[in-house]
Automatic annotation (TrEMBL):
SUPFAM superfamilies with a match to the protein in the record: Ribonuclease H-like (SSF53098)
Region (Disordered): 213-240
This protein's record includes keyword Ubl conjugation: no
A molecular-function term among this protein's GO annotations: zinc ion binding
Organism: Acanthoscelides obtectus (Bean weevil)
Protein name: Zinc finger BED domain-containing protein 4
Amino acid sequence: MGNWRSIGCFAHLINLVVQRATEQISDTLVKVKSIVEYFKRSSQGLHKLQESQRQMNLPLLKLKQNVPTRWNWTYEMLDRVVTIKDAVITTIALTRNDLSLQEDWSIIEEVLPLLLPFYEVTTEISAEKNVTLSKVIVMCKMIERILAKSSANHSKVQAVLEVLKKEMNARFQNIENNILFAKCTVLDPRFKKRGFKNADCFEKAVQGLRNKVGSGQIPHTNEANDSFDGNGLRHHQHQQKAYIREEYDEESLKISRPENKKVSGIKELDRYLNEDYLERKSDPLEW
């Protein structure tokens, strides 16, 4: 598309990471889907489930259906079934004992914390009103840090964890070397250097920005020789030069618009980098 640069969908890539990892618990997912489908098809079963929720003072919630084309569907489906777990166990025991999850409950409850950061990132990055490109490097960094601190007791959940780490590394290992993402991170007053793991990548992005702002052109207008009439229209002065006033105006112009625009732009960037960080929840566009 002309000179427009194509950027892959970060949320889509994150979703692919989760899909690949949750293949390790595909048997459990199939069982949960069967339970969801049962309560969707059976009005009697749904009535008993709701009755159990009321008796147990649980929130009156419906189970969430599998929607493969929707991001986060795996997390949402598992999170919902755990939220009303006791009611599901009771109702299944009375109506469809063959759908019992048994040891799968421990897998579900242990895998949810691993999927939670991916759910949060996808939700955040998909919000249309938020600045998102500058968050990509930071979010990758946070996910990798959380995964590094995570552990699992069940072998299948451990397998999920290992695939999450592997997929994140394969897809985002060099994300800080992407100069577009890096520059956006530097220019977000919430992140700047704090957003990087690799100091060299930060310095490379800053140098790229210095080169960019240093090449910018500041337009000059010969305001010293112009005047305005009562209607705000500009007229060129053809009168005899007033050397004292002209010298003063020229000096003022040098102060307000330095001759060395490259140095001026770099200094402005350096001032920005040395300023305090903006709060994470603040809007960088209002900075």
